């Protein structure tokens, strides 16, 4: 039931009223209102409303049909608004405030200045002069650029007599090309510019060719199964336009053909006979390539196919109500890192939402946490914070919604290989470094001026460089696992102990290539599939182990530096390559394991038929290697006519619901697949 009733509206009117149509000023602040509470049928009766206060609520957007024809003043401070375009339904609006909506940026300011022709005050500032520039000068410049792009690259592609299909194809290619290549103004306004460019381009097509302005429901970047890519090179189309700014410069590299992927396990390699039995399973898993992005280029160079991409992690949803439930605690936004930059990407649209650069850095790892921060008026609010680290041994702390890197921690004197936050202590960050140490930091909580204090809580001493770290799900405040250059180790990280610097508590031994057991091997992949099953990849070619934490490690055992035999549950069949640092990941909610290979392919293992047996106390090891459920083959990508070859998949990560699969490569390409 909606929180807003006729009685409430009459009571909150200023002054109180007896009829809705007589209300001119209405205060609906501090009512915990959500978007669904704004009933258009009820609001349509407020025909003479001129001032509306919706501050200090939980609104994430406006319904499109509130029908307030006389609204002049609107206060939306301290909400969760993500979009402002619905405000165009209030054409008489003169004063608008939406401060402390952390998802809104400078781009949104420019959008409302364009959409609301009568707007004079925005967040308390007179914007009359700037708004006139946005509506006139900016629009004139962009219209000129869009028209020139059409005339130069697309007008002659239409024959004198054209079919509806030809028109549709040209429209699709033009809208994609013009948004990529027409730029104007500072890079911080790139989102606004793309928004206006698309609007102007659609108007141009409608006027020139009488084309329908409606957009296809599917992503404009997606192609039909056998659709050939445009012969136009993005580089050619960009010759006559300005250079793209740092914030938004990225290239979309498109496969020459895109087909529904039903790759059979083992294709192209000699594998065990058991792979034939998984063919039916493979048909159940289909994934479409959505986007191929080149957004980490050094110096924004379109020629950069050498920058290595290393780490990606999906952003958690704010106020999801259950952070521990992975199904409801992740968005479709992913943070990726490689080279000198960290990018935030919308997986559905392929849009690079934000980009952070440090010219002297090479980023190796990123991790998210959600901090409850104090904002104005001593109120508390949750914000997502991104930690990024790499070659310089420094952790950068980024308040993403505010577009602000508010601090750094000089964590190590040597490069940081990986970072991760504690799932139970929001300010606790682990950093694993080439100095053969893993440090635990309390990053603190920044105040409203972004002052913060970080402190080191613990140092874990390793015998070799730690490459991957994982907190034990059943006791994340007590034990940490690390895959290192010289083996797999466990540490007691409980903070009630006085010892600040600690040696490892256990080292795990696994089957060696000679048939015996060994502790000495490089572990470059490590993750938990569920509360007990560990997935690790060692230097033994073609093998990924699944083993039981609880049956291997006795938490009541005494003494440090024990050698423990890992209780193997199964082996996964993988590439025979001896290349290192092609890491793995898991999707616990769906019982999936993912690992890329040296040929650009992604090996996917659906282990839901095995996990129940493994959780049994008497669960036995699988007798044979488990083949992949499916192998996603790297598509044929071309840049300026040349095929991209020798693609290594350094990392592959799915969101918790296994809707999107993000693949990071050695050739500066981020590939995004979507499960059908």
From TrEMBL:
Keywords: Centromere, Chromatin regulator, Chromosome, Cytoplasm, Cytoskeleton, DNA replication, Kinetochore, Leucine-rich repeat, Nucleus, Repeat, Telomere, WD repeat. Its main location: nucleus. It comes from the Eukaryota. InterPro entries: Leu-rich_rpt, LRR_dom_sf, LRR_LRWD1_dom, LRWD1, WD40/YVTN_repeat-like_dom_sf, WD40_repeat_CS, WD40_repeat_dom_sf, WD40_rpt. Residues 7-200 form the Leucine-rich repeat and WD repeat-containing protein 1 LRR domain. SMART domains: WD40 (SM00320). GO terms for molecular function: chromatin binding. WD repeats lie at residues 409-443. Residues 214-287 are annotated as: Disordered. It is found in: Chromosome, Centromere, Kinetochore; Chromosome, Telomere; Cytoplasm, Cytoskeleton, Microtubule organizing center, Centrosome; Nucleus. Residues 286-675 form the Leucine-rich repeat and WD repeat-containing protein 1 WD domain. GO terms for biological process: chromatin organization; DNA replication; establishment of protein localization to chromatin. GO terms for cellular component: centrosome; chromosome, telomeric region; kinetochore; nuclear origin of replication recognition complex. It holds the Pfam family WD_LRWD1. Residues 215-231 have a biased composition (Acidic residues). Belongs to the LRWD1 family. This is Leucine-rich repeat and WD repeat-containing protein 1. It comes from Phaetusa simplex (large-billed tern). The lineage of its organism: Eukaryota, Metazoa, Chordata, Craniata, Vertebrata.
